[in-house]
Design brief:
The complex is a heterodimer of chains A (266) and B (237).
Chain A (H helix, E strand, L loop, with lengths): L1 H9 L6 H18 L4 H24 L7 H22 L5 E2 L7 E4 L2 E4 L1 H22 L1 H11 L1 H6 L4 H23 L2 E2 L3 H16 L6 H19 L5 H15 L14
Antiparallel strand pairs in A: 1-4, 2-3
Helix pairs in contact in A: 1-6, 1-8, 2-3, 2-4, 2-8, 2-9, 3-8, 5-6, 5-8, 6-8, 9-10, 9-11, 10-11
Chain B lengths: L1 E10 L2 E11 L4 E6 L5 H8 L5 E8 L2 E2 L5 H7 L1 E4 L11 H8 L1 H4 L4 H14 L1 H5 L10 H13 L5 E5 L7 H16 L3 E5 L3 H7 L2 E6 L2 E7 H6 L1 H6 L4
Parallel strand pairs in B: 3-8, 3-9, 6-7, 7-8
Antiparallel strand pairs in B: 1-2, 1-4, 4-5, 9-10
Helix pairs in contact in B: 3-7
């Protein structure tokens, strides 16, 4: 979803999205484990700090390049990704920075044992998706951001500050990335952003780039296929699946499963 | 109201406006006519801050607005109905209209915006019937009405229109220009760019003829209508 929020508002594919997930996990670890803050407070602060990093990324890296070219901005996000990873390595050098599970333990459900954390993952994802949906359909700023993605020039004639909306898009994506990172990663390290980034990007591509809610379905589809392959063939192949699906979708149906065929942008 | 002095602007690498002077008087309808590529649209885009200008100045009520951002210019009271309407297709008619009031929505009570919405509906009643419909499903004429209504929602003091008649049937054009005449009677100042010189000169007070980015001719519209050159080149007489 984070990928698609930025893509639809600015046309930029943000390769640093995975690092937003990483920051979410790492900040939550530091605040909760090292600084001994209550978990809820640590999680909220980690999400907000990462959102701020998203805003700063847009202001300091993307904004100054806006007149040059889209490709340069996209390459700049790759640079940002490398930079963030390096920052992660300097400040969190450990291979594992485990965040305590929100509610520990496991439950048996329909004959399978699942960790309680999974309910947090599902619940918080549902809340986040609903919140983003309401934001984009019911609030003035959300509708203005949609207007910017439909036609930025007409949007600026409405008195909408298109650059500011791009900044909001980065902030919102970073918030969502941080949430995804800290809720999913029981143990975060500085190179996790890469894997989460690939998976998120694959989900976004499956759903159709620019289709914010398609990404949610894309993510569910990706997860199901990964688990099936892990169960049927071998769990060793799990991380390969995202890459295979990504390449296949790009070759066969570049606009995504839900996208229109004619809206392929490069 | 609007004073343009010695304005030059580029469209890509082409100098589209060259040392252009123009005045729009308060309460008037001023029109700009000229062939394709004469710089008419470029001029409106420069006034709205969509493209940077190279030299010269644009003043609105004595305030220099040259190279302000597009969204700031809307806030000062200049709204543009862009060429090709450019409504937000996937959004509803109502959402489009409300976006028109985006700039002032934070400081304006909701009741005032509702009453402005009613004024737009009174001008183009069709829009009220279609309020919940996606703007992209409207016909060309309806989209033009929506684009004008959307611009009015910003409560402009000066309305810029870029080729409002483009691609529309004569009956629809009449309807739209009747709406513009109503707005003018209520005191709105209008700067109209039109391909159809006849209809533009008939409804306006003052006209400029643009040729390769320069003002080739300017006069009261009724005099331009009688001008031999204008008749020959632009009115097809």
């Amino acid at each position: 979803m984070g990928f698609n929020i930025i893509f639809s508002s600015t046309g930029v594919i943000n390769f640093a999205q995975g690092e937003f997930c990483m920051f979410g996990g790492l900040f939550a670890f530091t605040l909760a484990v090292t600084a001994h803050l209550p978990l809820v407070l640590a999680v909220i602060l980690a999400i907000l700090i990462t959102g701020l990093i998203g805003v700063l990324t847009e202001r300091l890296i993307i904004h100054p390049l806006r007149h040059i070219s889209m490709l340069v901005m996209i390459i700049a996000t790759v640079g940002a990704s490398i930079l963030f990873k390096a920052v992660g390595r300097i400040f969190w050098p450990l291979e594992s920075n485990p965040l305590p599970q929100f509610t520990s333990g496991q439950v048996r459900l329909l004959g399978i044992t699942v960790s309680r954390q999974i309910f947090w993952v599902i619940g918080l994802t549902a809340i986040a998706v609903a919140a983003v949906y309401i934001f984009y359909n019911r609030t003035r700023t959300g509708i203005a951001m949609r207007a910017c993605s439909i036609n930025p020039q007409a949007a600026s004639l409405m008195g909408i500050n298109v650059q500011r909306m791009a900044m909001y898009a980065f902030g919102l994506s970073a918030l969502l990335g941080a949430l995804a990172g800290l809720v999913n990663a029981p143990s975060t390290n500085y190179h996790i952003g890469f894997y989460l980034g690939i998976k998120g990007f694959t989900a976004a591509v499956i759903g159709g780039l620019g289709n914010i809610f398609g990404a949610v379905l894309g993510g569910i589809a990706l997860g199901l296929v990964e688990e099936l392959v892990a169960g049927i063939i071998s769990s060793g192949y799990r991380d390969l699946i995202a890459a295979v699906i990504l390449i296949t979708v790009l070759l066969v149906r570049p606009a995504g499963l839900l996208g229109k065929r004619d809206v392929v942008k490069v | 109201m609007l004073e343009i002095r010695n304005l030059s602007a580029f469209y890509g690498r082409v100098e589209a406006l060259r040392a252009l002077d123009m005045d729009v008087l308060s309460g008037s309808i001023t029109t700009i006519i000229g062939a394709n590529g004469a710089g008419k649209s470029t001029l409106l885009r420069a006034i709205s801050g969509l493209i940077p200008t190279r030299y010269g100045s644009i003043c609105f009520f004595g305030k220099d607005i040259t190279n302000l951002h597009a969204d700031q210019i809307v806030g000062l009271g200049i709204s543009q109905v862009p060429e090709g309407r450019q409504v937000f297709g996937p959004l509803t008619v109502l959402e489009n209209l409300k976006l028109g009031a985006f700039k002032r929505a934070r400081k304006t009570p909701a009741s005032e915006i509702e009453s402005d919405l009613d004024k737009v509906y009174a001008l183009f009643p069709l829009l009220k019937d279609r309020a919940g419909q996606a703007a992209g499903t409207l016909s060309g004429g309806e989209q033009q009405m929506l684009a004008i209504g959307r611009a009015l929602m910003a409560k402009p003091r000066l309305l810029l229109l870029d080729e409002p008649s483009m691609g529309l049937a004569p009956k629809v054009i009449q309807e739209i220009f009747a709406g513009l005449a109503d707005l003018h009677r209520e005191g709105l100042t209008i700067l109209l760019v039109e391909q159809d010189a006849k209809i533009a000169l008939k409804m306006s007070d003052y006209g400029y003829v643009l040729k390769t980015g320069k003002v080739a001719l300017e006069d009261e519209s009724c005099k331009l209508l009688e001008n031999e050159q204008v008749q020959k080149i632009y009115l097809g007489a």
